[in-house]
Amino acid sequence: MVLNIVKNNQEVSDIAGCVKEVFGNSDVSVKKDYGISVDIAVIGENGLHSLEGLKELESYFNDYDIRIW
């Protein structure tokens, strides 16, 4: 899955680190930086991801806008 997260003056590496913390068993990489937002690719072993993980991300980025592709 690809997450598009509004940066709101955060460093891309910090955003990717938060995503990696939530999806620890997945490969997390920065796909594209748009300046205002960033695409983060999250690739798991079986390709499925928990909605609980997405809810946890909201606690890190509660003032941020997160989109899922």
Automatic annotation (TrEMBL):
Q: Which domain of life is it from?
A: Bacteria
What protein does this entry describe? NIL domain-containing protein
Naturally occurring in which organism (per UniProt): Bacteroides oleiciplenus YIT 12058
